[in-house]
Amino acid sequence: MSLLCLLTGHGIGPALWNFRGSFGIMDSGRKEIQYEDFHGRKLDRKLLNLL
Fold this sequence. Notes:
It is a single chain. The protein is an alpha+beta fold. The protein has one domain. It has helices at 3-9, 45-50; strands at residues 36-38, 41-43. Strands 1-2 form a two-stranded antiparallel ribbon. A hairpin with a 2-residue loop joins strand 1 (36-38) and strand 2. The longest helix has 7 residues, at 3-9. The radius of gyration is 12 Å and the shape is elongated. The mean pLDDT is 89.
């Protein structure tokens, strides 16, 4: 069971600290992410879909 499933099962949903930056879905700078170009920005589509 994943942590996300465990939290969701207890009524705790995901949160987004920043739109852009190290905790956000845009221009985070994380090296392991496959980004999608979105209006000149680097979008983490996988994280966006998860949220």
